[in-house]
Amino acid sequence: MIADPALVISEDNTPVVVIPQENIPTLIIPQENTPAVVFPQGYTPALVFPQGSTPTHILYPTRFYVLGIFSFLAFNQSAFWLTFSPVSPSTQIYYNIPSSTVDLLLNWGPIIFIPCLPLVYLLLNKRNGLRRAVIVLAIGGLVSTALRVIPSIVTSPSSPRFKDISLPFLHAGQIINAACGPIVMAPVSQLSCLWFGPSERTRATTLAIMTNIFGSTVSFLINPAIVSRPSNLPNLLYFHLALAFIGAVITLIYFPAQPPTPPSVAAELLMQEGKQSSNSGFTDFMKGLRACMSNLSFVLLSTAGGIMNGTFAVWAGLFSVILYPEYSETQAGWFGFFSSLAGIIGALCLGVLADTPQFRRRLKMLILISFIGCFLSVIWFQLSVRSIFYHAPILGSTQFTIGLSLSLAGLFQGAVSPLIYEGLAEIMYPLPESLSASILVQWNNIACVSLLFIASKQYILINLLVLIVIAISIIMIIFARIIYRRQDEEEQKKNKTIIGMEMDRNVSTIESHP
Questions:
Q1: What is the tens place of the pLDDT at every residue in 13-68?
Q2: Which pLDDT tens digit goes with each residue over 246-291?
Q3: CB burial class (10 A; 0-12, 13-18, 19+) of residue 283?
Q4: β-strands 46-47, 15-20: how paired?
Q5: pLDDT of 89 over the 90 cut
Q6: Are the C-beta atoms of 39 and 21 separated by less than 8 Å?
Q7: How far apart are CA 426 and CA 458, in angstroms?
Q8: How far, in Å, CA of 307 to CA of 194, rounded?
Q9: Domain ranges of the chain
Q10: Residues paired with 287 in a beta bridge
Q11: Distance CA 512, CA 10 (A)
Q12: What's the chain's average pLDDT?
């Protein structure tokens, strides 16, 4: 008979702790979905304590609905932002405005993004913050598109005051849509962490990011097709209004704040913090910001990703002038389209790869390979066009070689974006994912706005600058260190849970001892 606490080996060689208590009835503490504990003959009744908890992390099918709605709204926001630039000549004729005004309608995006981002972060970290932010995104898109169609309803292009009436509504619509930009970019890591399991997070983050980019990519094809002549411009605005209306209605009908139970340990912590953060505000934001900016690896990785993406975005918008006169604007537009499409494909492929067990802890390697691939592709393009150092291309170029070099550059640049989001979330865990994402996209927009002021006149300089920025980013990535704090926490808790479940299960299988 066992008289003292002992480590008993069960049939399958699993250790079980048994604490006997003489003459005390057995106390069984049942757990949900746990089989009854049966003690073998010959044992003193004992008080058995499980060695770990047995929580179950469930993945709900609703996660795909949530990601789908968010992705649709992200697609809309980008498409609304790029309404007028792909049809700039028709816009100038219809509203009787110069090209600089069309450029300003586009530039409201990064300009308004910067001051609005901290406000979005505060909203996201309130109770049910993700749901509130998505509702604001849906309603903001509806209001912005509705404002833009008002001039076409209340007046006509033949009116002498049509321009004066239209411009305030156009600017207001673009500004409101631009204010929704941070809601599209900041919560992507938070959404994937809250709703998806550890083996799905990178893919979910990738899809949320890429649908936003896809909105602008498709606009280069759809907008000119709808606006075949200037008088058709209102048709495009009504089409966008219909998209915004559909998104708003679906979101208001049903968009859950969070899953019934957390799908992972990280989501569990995020949901607990959400319940306790009803009074969080600017002070908490500043504390988190200081923590991020005092982490050297975070600063290196976020700066590298932010300035690279911002510079690449401005550079991609200058393909028509960089390639002139060898290639037409139409050809440059197709080059930009395929570069953007390649970025989406690259992000999806690398997102799937990063979610596999073999590469889940190799984000730095994947990021570095992508940066180097982008750098080599841009060098190939640089040698195929005139630059600040030489007036004639060093390498001969054709539509195929230019298109291939830009597509490869877009492929690697797009592939790296979601990996940086996830890498920053790992480094700064348990701080909210929305904080690290906010800082990343802020760097992106600061770089973008800074370069917009010199892009139109110094396009050859921008063509060289993108190469320099990628090279500097590679150096920063080399010195950055990604510590997988979030994955470590999840694995530790998972191991404790497995041990507890094994202990609970094997108590009932102990055989009789003499």
A1: 444 444 444 443 443 444 444 444 444 444 444 334 344 444 567 888 999 999 99
A2: 999 999 999 998 888 888 877 787 777 666 554 456 777 788 888 9
A3: exposed
A4: antiparallel
A5: no
A6: no
A7: 38
A8: 28
A9: 1-49, 60-282, 291-505
A10: none
A11: 10
A12: 81
The amino acid present at 47, given as its one-letter code, is: L
Paired tokens of 512:
């009789």
Confidence (pLDDT) at 408: 95
3-state secondary structure of 20: strand
Domain 291-505 has CATH 1.20.1250.20: yes
Alpha-carbon span 112 to 134, nearest angstrom: 18
For residues 450 and 8, the model is more confident at 450
Spatial distance between the Cα atoms of 7 and 51, rounded to a whole number of angstroms: 13
Distance, CA of 121 to CA of 413 (rounded, Å): 26
Beta partners for 18? Answer: 6
Nearest to 226 by CA among 344, 356, 86, 102: 86
Contact of 46 with 21, CB cutoff 8 Å? yes
Residue 499 has pLDDT above 80, yes or no: no
Characterize 29-51 residue by residue with b for buried, 16 or more Cβ atoms within 10 angstroms of its Cβ, and e for exposed: eeeeebeebebeeebbebebebe
What is the Cα–Cα distance from 233 to 222, expressed in whole angstroms?
A: 12
Average pLDDT over residues 152-181: 91
For 60-282, CATH number? 1.20.1250.20
Contact by Cβ (8 Å): 262, 271: yes
Asked if the domains at 60-282 and 291-505 fall in one CATH topology, the answer is yes
* Inter-residue contact 256 to 372 (CB < 8 Å): no
Question: Measured between alpha carbons, how far is residue 260 from residues 51, 61, 176 in Å?
Answer: 26, 12, 33
Q: Scanning the structure block, which residue is given the tokens 């070689």?
A: 401
Q: Rounded distance, CA 425 to CA 414, Å?
A: 18
DSSP state of 508: G
**Residue 203: pLDDT over 60:** yes
Confirm if 75 and 214 have CB atoms less than 8 A apart: yes
DSSP SS3 for 449? helix
